[in-house]
Write a structure and sequence with these properties.
single chain; alpha/beta; Rossmann fold; seven-stranded parallel β-sheet; 9 helices
Length: 295
C-alpha cells in the first residue's frame, strides 16, 4: 500500500489497549512499523500478539511515561530495531477520580498531572529530537480531550491536564513547523476505553490515591457513572480512522465528535465578549491599537 505513512515508524505510549492499540492497528495496517509502550506489561504482551496476527511489524516496550529513563530505553530499542522515528503519539493518560475541588486530594492532582502532562513532556523531549534528526519531518499527536477545550465540573484535575496538553500542542506546532513536524491535539469526547479503570496501573508513589477512588465508589457511585459514560462512547477504531483522515487534511485540532461544536463555540463567544468588554474599558481600552507582542 502506497501512502505517506508506509515504511515509517510510529511510537505510541499507552499502546496496549484502547485508543493506543486502535491507533497502532490503524497505522500498522497502513504500513508503519509500530512501537507500543505501556505500563501494563501483561496487556502489552497481548497487544503485541494482536498486532503480529495482523502482520504488523511491532516492538513492545515496558513504559511508565513518568520515567525519563524508560523513554530513553524505548527510543534506543526503537532505533536499534527500525531506525528512524517519524511519528510520536502521546496517548498514555489517566482519568483521575470524579470529585469537587474540596474532595480531590492533592496526591490525586499530582498523579493526574504527572501522567497526563509530564508524560507528554517526557515523550516529546525523548522522541521529538529523533524526528528532527533525519530531516524528513513527521508527526506528533498529543491525545487531549474535549475536556481540554472546556472545563468540566467535578473533573478539575483531568480537565486541567488536558487543557495543558492542548496548549503544549499549540506551542510546539509553532516551534516545530520549521522542521516539517506537524503537531496535533486529539480532542475526543467519550470513547470506549478503560480510562475509568486508571487506578489499576497506579505508580508505587501514588498508591494511596486508591483510597479516594474506593471511597468515591462507595459514596455516590461517581466512578460507576464515569464508567457508564465511557462505555457509551464511540469505538476506538472509529477514532483511529478519524485521526488518519484528519492528518491527511492537516488538522491542528482533531475532533471526533462534531456534536460538541456548540459548547466550544459558546466558549469562543464568551472570549470574544470579554475582549469587547476590555476594548470598552476605561482602564485598558486604549491598548486595543497597540502592537501585539508575541509572548
Amino acid at each position: 500500500m502506497s501512502n505517506k505513512f508506509s515504511g515509517k515508524t510510529a511510537v505510541i505510549s499507552g499502546g496496549a489497549g484502547g485508543i493506543g492499540l486502535a491507533l497502532a492497528s490503524e497505522f500498522g495496517l497502513l504500513g508503519m512499523n509500530i512501537v507500543i509502550g505501556d505500563i501494563d506489561q501483561k496487556q502489552l504482551t497481548v497487544a503485541e500478539q494482536h498486532l503480529r496476527a495482523l502482520d504488523i511489524n511491532v516492538l513492545a516496550c515496558p513504559l511508565d511515561v513518568t520515567q525519563n529513563q524508560q523513554w530513553l530505553d524505548l527510543v534506543a530499542s526503537t532505533e536499534a530495531r527500525f531506525g528512524d522515528i517519524h511519528m510520536l503519539i502521546n496517548n498514555a493518560g489517566v482519568g483521575g477520580i470524579p470529585g469537587s475541588i474540596n474532595e480531590t486530594k492533592i496526591d490525586t492532582w499530582k498523579w493526574v498531572l504527572d501522567v497526563n502532562v509530564m508524560g507528554v513532556v517526557n515523550g516529546t523531549q525523548a522522541v521529538g529530537p529523533k524526528i528532527k534528526e533525519h530531516g524528513q519531518g513527521g508527526w506528533i499527536i498529543n491525545v487531549a480531550s474535549m475536556a481540554g477545550m472546556n472545563g468540566v465540573a467535578y473533573s478539575g484535575a483531568y480537565a486541567a491536564s488536558k487543557a495543558a496538553v492542548v496548549s503544549m500542542s499549540e506551542s510546539w506546532a509553532v516551534e516545530l513547523k520549521k522542521d516539517n513536524i506537524s503537531v496535533s491535539a486529539l480532542c475526543p469526547a467519550f470513547v470506549k476505553t478503560r480510562i475509568h479503570e486508571s487506578l489499576r496501573n497506579l505508580q508505587p508513589e501514588y498508591q494511596n490515591v486508591k483510597e479516594q477512588g474506593a471511597t468515591k465508589v462507595k459514596s455516590k457511585g461517581g466512578m460507576n457513572q464515569a464508567a457508564a459514560l465511557v462505555e457509551s462512547g464511540i469505538p476506538a477504531q472509529m477514532l483511529a480512522k478519524r485521526v488518519v483522515e484528519a492528518l491527511n487534511s492537516k488538522q491542528s485540532y482533531i475532533f471526533t465528535h462534531p456534536n460538541y461544536r456548540e459548547g466550544v463555540s459558546y466558549r469562543s463567544h464568551l472570549l470574544d465578549k470579554a475582549f469587547v468588554d476590555a476594548e470598552n474599558s476605561e482602564v485598558v481600552g486604549h491598548l486595543k491599537d497597540d502592537e501585539i507582542v508575541i509572548l
